[in-house]
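Dear colleague,

As promised, here are the two records you asked about, laid out in our usual form so they can be pasted straight into your sheet.

NAME FIELD: protein one
SEQUENCE, THEN STRUCTURE:
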Amino acid sequence: PEHVAAIASAARMFGGGASIGPAPIAAPGDAGATRAGGGKGGKGTAAAAMPAIPVKDRSLLASKIWRIWEERLGCGTRKQAPQGPEDFVVSVEVNPAPGLSTAKPVATARMLRKGGVDVINIADGPRATVRMSNSALAEAIQREVGSETILHMCCRDRNLLGLLSDLLGNHSRGLHNMVVITGDPPKMGDYPKATAVFDVDSVGLLRIIKGLNTGLDPAGKSFDAQARFFCATGAEPGAVDYEREMRRLRDKIDAGADLVMTQPVYDSDVMRRFLADVAALPRPVPVLLGLCPLVSSRNADFLHNEVPGMSVPQGIRDRMARAGGGPAGQAEGVAIAQEMLEEFKDQVVGCYVMPQLGKYDLALDVLAGLGYGKDD
């Protein structure tokens, strides 16, 4: 029953098959009452939750984002363009190495830091491929480069105990910034027969982290202090089922997400609708605008046709086709990303750049108009 209660703590509905008796199903309700501080004649007194540490005090990244959110954007009540890097947050995604060495991604992080990038975003087995642990790379970057990192944490590969163990270990190493995602299914990657765990989804994991931030684990056990996790979540402004996407986003914000990072969008109307809907939520949260500079016509076609959740409008694909390949194609991809950034920079706290095919220098090209630049 205790194991079932821990898993059910992150669920909204819970049940069992024919072989499951009433006791394990009833146990989550008992545990829930204990976690809430009531208890139903259980063993001992329930641990009390501690007040969560203010979001702005959880990391340097959280502090900068919250200052911009409050001072420049009025917590979502006004539009105001940034004046420069001090008024804008930039995260660039650097993938973990597919091998044993951190040298290449660490060198990339060093180049980006010199260009003014605030934080390095590190994916967690993107597209269900095998790569080095993102926490190992994050620790190397923070130690050797001095840049803050923000880690993706997906629910695909670890059971509840593994997720909790990684969270506690990450926190002890100063890795407080998380992007909580459900994760791509293994069938998309190199090992399609690998087991997909999914004890919880992104909403459930956010609830767990919200509990850790009040000093409690999912079973109601108390730690000696509150965690300082700053949690972002992803959103897909161009989702086919947009209403479902917005319902999920509301659930994730209710579960503890303090920041939204969007998937790349190449259609201004789609992004405009999404930002308006986020601003109208009962609890608006800051947004990082997702940008993915295209590098060629072939790249644009691949993203549109082969990557789930990605849509590149025909007009954008036509522009990339006219530009051709090589430097001209890359320059056109940068220009397209700059147009999106220019249109929406007055509504977001910053941007999240996802370079394609290892073209990390293009991230700084996209940001040149805001005062970022390569180290010459």
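NAME FIELD: protein two
SEQUENCE, THEN STRUCTURE:
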Amino acid sequence: MNTIKQHHSLQMQVRFKSTEEMSI
């Protein structure tokens, strides 16, 4: 369960990063 939560937060970080790059 903890691993799934970590993976989810990692995906969100990557998503946020790629969104930031796209808006620049």
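A couple of things worth noting about protein two: The CA atoms of residues 4 and 20 lie 24 Å apart. Residues 2-23 form the longest helix (22 residues).

Best,
R.
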